[in-house]
Amino acid sequence: MVDGLLMPPHSSVLAATIGITFVTPHKVVNRDLQGLFRVKRERVRDALKWLQANNQLYSDIIISEDRLSELPEDDVPTEIVSTTRVSADVEAVLREEEGYVPLDVLDEGEFHAERLSRSQISHICYRPH
């Protein structure tokens, strides 16, 4: 078997391919992660079967029951929890935005969006319940 055709990838690959950083002044607990990053093994299996049947790029995959068994039945994978970072530096959002092309430029055919103020950013930052 060609390893590249085996799906899903090993759960250990998650930590190397998915990085999560919450930028919030509030404490983040595991129950907050569960609502956002919960994995259901059966849904992964169903999604892979659908892709195999309906997407030519996935038609040759081999669905690995061993790899599926590495995934939780209904929980956040340990690899995700162990690599999730939390930062209270809300100002980092503003600093990061400074490196992007200005959003307030209006030329024919270009997308326009308004810049967010600091207070608007603080309102959209993640706040756990």
Write the layout of secondary structure elements.
Layout: E1 6-7, H1 14-17, E2 21-23, H2 30-37, H3 41-54, E3 62-63, H4 65-70, H5 78-83, E4 85-87, H6 91-97, H7 118-124
Parallel strand pairs: 1-3, 2-4
Largest sheet: 2 strands, parallel
Count of beta strands: 4
Domain module tally: 1
The overall pLDDT average reads 77
Biggest β-sheet: strands ordered side by side in the sheet: 1-3
Label the structural class: mainly alpha
Order of helices and strands: EHEHHEHHEHH
How much is the radius of gyration in Å?
A: 20 Å
> Which percent range fits the helix content?
40-55%
Tally of contiguous helical segments: 7
Overall 3D shape: elongated
Distance between the termini: 46 Å
Q: Can you tell me about this structure?
A:
Residues 6-68 form the DUF6570 domain. This protein has 129 residues and is mainly alpha-helical. It has one domain. The strands form two sheets. A two-stranded parallel ribbon has the order 1-3. A two-stranded parallel sheet has the order 2-4. The protein has seven helices and four strands.
